[in-house]
Write a structure and sequence with these properties.
The protein is an alpha/beta fold. It has helices at about 5-10, 25-35, 50-60, 70-80, 95-105, 115-125, 150-165, 185-200, 225-240, 255-260, and strands spanning about 20, 40-45, 65, 85-90, 110, 130, 140, 170-175, 180, 210, 250, 260-270, 280-285, 305, 315-320, 330-340, 345-350, 370-375.
Amino acid sequence: MTDRIVDFLRSRRPEGPCLVVDLDVVRENFRAFRHSMPDTRIFYAVKANPAPEILSTLAEMGSCFDCASVAEIEMALAAGATPDRISYGNTIKKERDIARAFALGIGLYSVDCEAEVDKIARQAPGARVFCRILCDGAGAEWPLSRKFGCEPEMAAGVLEHAYRNGLDAYGVSFHVGSQQANTEAWDGALATAAGLFRELAERGIRLRMVNLGGGFPTRYLRDVPGVPNYGQSILDAISRHFGNRLPETIIEPGRGMVGGAGIIKAEVVLISRKQADDPVRWVYLDIGKFGGLAETMDEAIRYPIRTLRDDGPSAPCVLAGPTCDSADVLYEKTPYPLPISLEIGDEVLIEATGAYTTTYSAVAFNGFPPLQSYVI
């Protein structure tokens, strides 16, 4: 919570649930990444929050952009980024979208199989490609599945296939899991990447880049290491596994760039119990999973919640959203402590919600409008 957000909510009093993002925090986070990892290029993950004000601010500061679609590429270009500062980082792309991206000047693409290489070879001849390898994500609060990436043993063949088809086999990427609390999580993946560099060199192919992915966390209910801790740990691991022949490196922060910059203002719609003597209250808000809080799935991300009644005693509650869908429950397995004096109509502030909220908000599920966003 920043003074600027407090002043905005006090003066504007926007109706309905809304997200407010403080650009000053985004600027501070970008400077922290640049200072802690000065030799690494920053590719902001546009999917975290594609608000035009955020993209243009980061573009002005010199950020590059990791894009998952042609639409995101066009957003980054509109914000002032040049094509050489954009990566098409989704491993799952329609062939016509590759052609469109190439026509826009995009020359850097992610792959994880030979079929994707073939599409790029046909539609983006000569482009640079990097192969994503699987990573277990241990230590992450939002671990990633096996949807993206291939086994390292397969990656060497994918990159050689790219090279044989006229593409620039540029490097390797991985993702250690979102909200990664372990600063050492990059070590094993970097060891694997270094092994791939050596194997491809033996085949006459010189890789040059390691994409370290995202995973840099936002503070929710628990403290997390600062960016300098991650920067030093990653640098140590790169030096350990690559020696004096350090590769080019890039990072793709999303949550770590904008998560802590945003607050969602919401309202208590209903407080009830499931039986007369039930000790646990159900508290329903005017925002839920389908309104932007999808990362409460499996209660993986537990957001800090603040009310005007926090000075009094609290008790565990089940917290749920307003829609007519039984899946729209935020915290039930581990109930959330909220003030006993909480009343219908009270305002609640959900902190650290600058990332993966507006982009997860449904267009009109149950007729509820998408999450409003204000960037100040």
